[in-house]
Design brief:
Blueprint lengths: L2 E8 L8 E4 L2 E3 L2 E2 L5 E7 L3 E7 L9 H11 L14 E11 L3 E7 L9 E5 L2 E12 L1 H33 L2
Parallel strand pairs: 1-8
Antiparallel strand pairs: 1-5, 2-3, 2-6, 4-5, 6-7, 7-10, 8-9
């Protein structure tokens, strides 16, 4: 029997941009006119696994290459969107046992390192919480600090080159 899951996310911080997956398949969410996200999904199973996570750019394999390249292309960081300096990751995983079509509401809480990341409610299904927390990724934090030092060094290098060229043009 095919069931429909209506998923609605509210209170999403625009800096977080969560990624939702149902049974391991990433789903594209549509933003409604009230600023919350929604999607409908058809499933044939009695239970599904819903996971919410965040894809941090500094976690990728060639993070340093992409970061420095975008820093230079964006006019030495003037037009570059900033990285999250708190390095917050969302780690949520729920098992939803369906009885019929279900409407699931997920409300994001404000960041507290010891509290729950989301509150999940539903009227027609039972929900088992496996993981539900915000995490500060220490390795990403170290990469962010290293990137900040590299950017400061590149700015000082750029200022030094500008002063050098101005000084050489004045003395000619």
């Amino acid at each position: 029997m095919e069931r429909i899951i209506n998923l609605k996310l509210t209170g999403v911080n625009p800096k977080i941009r969560p990624i939702i997956s149902v049974d391991g398949k990433t789903k594209r969410l549509k933003k409604n006119k009230f600023g919350s996200y929604e999607f409908k999904n058809k499933v044939k199973k009695d239970s599904v696994v819903i996971s919410i996570h965040r894809n941090l750019e500094l976690r990728s394999r060639f993070w340093w290459f992409y970061a420095i390249l975008s820093f230079i292309i964006s006019g030495f960081g003037i037009l570059e969107p900033g990285y999250d300096r708190k390095c917050v990751d969302v780690n949520c995983k729920f098992i939803v046992k369906l009885k019929s079509d279900a409407t699931i509401n997920i409300k994001f809480n404000s960041f507290v390192s010891s509290g729950k990341a989301v509150e999940i409610t539903s009227s027609s299904c039972s929900i088992i919480q496996e993981e539900n927390s915000y995490l500060v990724d220490k390795s990403i934090k170290k990469k962010w600090i290293a990137l900040l030092i590299i950017k400061i060094f590149m700015w000082l290098l750029l200022i030094g080159l500008i002063i050098y060229f101005i000084y050489n043009n004045i003395n000619k």
